[in-house]
Amino acid sequence: MKLNLGFLASHNGSNVEAIINNIELGNLEAQPKVIISNNPDARILNLGRNKQIPSYCINKNNTLNPNELIFQTLKNYDLDLIILAGYMKKIGNNIIIDYSNKILNIHPSLLPKYGGEGMYGMRVHEKVIGSDDNESGATIHLVTEEYDQGRILAQYKVPRYELDTVSTLAERVLRIEHVLYSQTLIEIQKGIICL
Question: Residues 153-167: pLDDT tens digits?
Fold first, then answer.
């Protein structure tokens, strides 16, 4: 079964790009149907246009109710899954309810550690560096109304070295994110991971 995918991302969208590359290589049987960003300068919008994927910027500058417009835009496509990839806004409850168990997020730590409201990007890596942890990693989870509380679908660990900086740890985690997201989608498609 080919998966129809919708993507929400706020910046570069390197995880989206990695997933699209796996689709193009034939590793993942899926179709990228739509890309939505809240950031008009996001590189992901250019990627979407270059790949001829319908791409939209939706934010408070172009609509009074961004969540409703995002919801209506997603409904225009026959989506099996919504993929959050560095999307820096809270998803509206109407979307979460309508797409229950169909919204995936990637988080740059081994949840439940270093998750929750305000814990994203470099903030997460700063917490790991400031801890006694000797490992970090990435987590794919289902999205619910509470930040980073949805059921964990997959995790991958990476070492945290004594001489790591926030940047070196972030780079190591991002490299495995690019592998983990596509692998998780492949296993969902094959029925190995059930949503």
Answer: 999 999 999 999 999
